Amino acid sequence: MSLDALTSALPDYAKDLRLNLGSVTGTSLLTQQQLWGTVLVCAIASRSAVVLRELEEEADARLSPEAYTAAKSAAAVMAMTNVFHRTRHLLSDPEYGKLRAGLRTNVLGDPGVERTDVELWSLAVSAVNGCGACLDSHERALRGVGVEPETIQEAFKIASVVQAVAVTLDAEAVLTR
Fold first, then answer.
1. Tens-place pLDDT, residues 5-32
2. How many CB atoms lie within 10 A of CB 46?
3. For a surface tag, which of 60, 78, 79, 138 has the fewest beta carbons within 10 Å of its beta carbon?
């Protein structure tokens, strides 16, 4: 299956998702590397085997080996840091915010691709995982290097569509009518 087959697998009631998936992958403001890295990290973060299998194939064909590995690294590290920082933020005791995290994220220091790309990918994963602290942090980093709000929004728009496709297709695999 490919992107087209994945789109075709969406039921009629999810026509908007079908159109949005085509739109975010076909008319993006992002570079090809930013776009397909964002698609890949969001597919990983969605936890949907079907969506990951199909979108990974598309991303693999469009990303360099370095970008493919950097995207997977960003998804892995953000899976950890999103839980950590979201929990810290949700706890009412501010003392946790003063403690050293003590979590290794060295892969983000030298990812092998443009830092802006990894920041976009990290922001997109944070959107899927619902970590406000990480969203703020990565948005500030992107704005700090001159990335426009429209470009940043493009990353979380992709995240929202990929997540919705994953939820819908996973539900369809279980629903009886």
1. 889 999 999 999 999 999 999 999 999 9
2. 23
3. 60
- Cβ-contact 73, 107 below 8 angstroms: yes
Tokens, residue 54: 């199909």
Is 131 catalytic? The answer is yes
- If we measure between CA atoms, which residue out of 100, 55, 61, 102 comes closest to residue 75? 55
Sign of the CA dihedral running 82, 84, 90, 95: negative
CATH topology of domain 3-172: AhpD-like (1.20.1290)
Does the predicted model carry a pTM greater than 0.85? yes
Is residue 42 part of the annotated active site? The answer reads: no
Alpha carbons 100 and 114: distance in angstroms, whole number: 27
Rounded CA gap, 154 and 147, in Å? 11
Residue in 45, 131, 152, 169 annotated catalytic: 131
